[in-house]
Amino acid sequence: MAAYRADDDYDYLFKVVLIGDSGVGKSNLLSRFTRNEFSLESKSTIGVEFATRSIRVDDKIVKAQIWDTAGQERYRAITSAYYRGAVGALLVYDVTRHVTFKNVERWLKELRDHTDSNIVIMLIGNKADLRHLRAVSTEDAKAFAERENTFFMETSALESMNVENAFTEVLTQIHHVVSRKALDIGDDPAALPKGQTINVGSKDDVSAVKKVGCCSS
Amino acid sequence: MKNSASGEPDSYFAIRPECQGDVPKARFKPKIGKTLSARRWHAAFSQDGHLDIAGVLRRIQRGGVHPSIKGVVWEFLLGCFDPNSTFNERNEVRQRRREQYDALKAECQKMVPIIGSGKFITAAIINDDGQPMQDPSTSSDPHDNIGVMSSNDAVSDKKVIQWKLSLHQIGLDVVRTDRALVFYESEINQAKLWDILSVYAWVDNDIGYVQGMNDICSPMVILLENEADAFWCFQHAMRRLRENFRSSSSSIGVQTQLSTLSEIIKTVDPKLHQHLEEVDGGEYLFAFRMLMVLFRREFSFIDGLYLWEVMWAMEYNPNIFASYEESDSNVATGKNVAPKISNKLLKQYGKFERKNVETGRTDQNSPLAVFLVASVLETKNKRLLKEAKGLDDVVKIVGDITGKLDARKALNEALKIHKKYLNKAKK
């Protein structure tokens, strides 16, 4: 694992949210990425929890402030505070539970209703290590991601597969969006300009991401 | 109740050896002369069963409750029973409640036969429209057993649909509740937790089931062997917590307490409040979980229980039982039927509630837990002002301290903030 940088020294601060149904592994993806930890005994998330990690993207230090939320519908009440200012989102489903993939559509709608159109979205099929229990094919998810113009990757927080890649890719893409708009940003590096839509999820980008993925069995 | 006679708390709430590293270290140790011991507890009853609640509260506020008697003591702290009643009267209440629970459970069982079977579900049994699920891909989980589920046709009653839709969520949380404890290695014990939460969600359908209620219920299941007793203990704990769990499309109940917290900090330390606002923490969302599950996640299992009982002792109001019974029988009278408050009666209040009574405050939105969060923030105010540049820093700084807190000392600090707040708010 690469050395983790001190948190107070960074060029950009990006707020990224983790969303998806209850029990798909959001919190473990977060702890794998920020602390390189995974727990089989992990507890359900209550309300919102936060963690950060800084990584190098291109030649810049990017600090990701990642918000993790409870999956239960009842917690949607705090949605607006949750999404406010988010520039990236990992939308997670569980490859062994089809219903969590079905609900991705609902999550996507909520995300688009509450965030800036520039937001970088990655669809994540987690628990890819449970090969014998797979209920969602990589092809179906890939097709969905292309249709919806989001990035896509399959991950395993348990096996530490693609977790680093997924977050890094999202942060890199955010950085690209920001760099393209650098002139408008002024002295607030965390803010994305409003208004003009940047199509960060073009098909070319998606396939570029897919090459990084490696997990269909 | 437990087979260990040793006084070591670890033996009551044993941690699986392979999980030792994953959970916070237990700090609580029963202290001779401070902690309410089994011997002291039994000695606090008169011959016919009247309890010297003032003496018991004094002890608990000094050193908590010995693990061997937590369950029965909590029943009083939470207002399940009136200390001013006899053994016989309480036995009757207990008997009546057990029958009532059995009836409620039977009602649920009729709709969903897996309830009470020792098994439970983690995948939805119906879809949002109330149609039974048939897609086999939704039931890959070993706990799912479509065969034992209610067979029948589409459910039409909205209340029933809503309840059935919550059952798999309860299951998903039960398998993630206190799994580091040996107790929950047993599927029977997991199913007991699921049963209680499921019945509760049916009975209190206004609130239903919200994630976090499992954290509140889990200790009751461990402490009270009888399932019905555990249910009623949980139900009484929920009487003071349920508003936190009430959710609408635009808000969730606990936000009322977060506003109170904001009000308190604004009053006792305006500078800190302003700083928190500047780092986008003005909504105090970082305290959300602390208030929802009463610091359970910040402490080890045993230390969480210690915190709860000291807190409930400090909040104790001798009218609690009467007011609950009254609200159940729907007798509409003025709240707080407190007779003239004599010195003797004042001793039957916990420290925190006594202060409220003395100053004439009966604010439901300002429980001690809110002042506890405030005092934690206050303790760290210098570091927060200097080092917190973002919400995550706030979380980290607050997290650093909560893990090291002694529950009793922390609550006494909270009482000081409470006093300070009352004084300042008066002006």
From TrEMBL, chain A:
One of its GO terms (molecular function) is GTPase activity. Gene3D superfamilies: P-loop containing nucleotide triphosphate hydrolases. This is Ras-related protein RABA1f. It is found in: Cell membrane. PANTHER family: DRAB11-RELATED. GO terms for cellular component: plasma membrane. SMART domains: RAB (SM00175), RAN (SM00176), RAS (SM00173), RHO (SM00174). Belongs to the small GTPase superfamily. Rab family. It is a lipid-anchor. The keyword Signal does not apply. InterPro entries: P-loop_NTPase (IPR027417), Rab_GTPases_membrane_traffic (IPR050209), Small_GTP-bd (IPR005225), Small_GTPase (IPR001806). Pfam families: Ras. Signal peptide: none annotated. Keywords: GTP-binding, Lipoprotein, Membrane, Nucleotide-binding, Prenylation.
From TrEMBL, chain B:
GO terms for molecular function: GTPase activator activity. Residues 64-315 form the Rab-GAP TBC domain. PROSITE patterns: TBC_RABGAP (PS50086). It holds the Pfam family RabGAP-TBC. This is Rab-GAP TBC domain-containing protein.
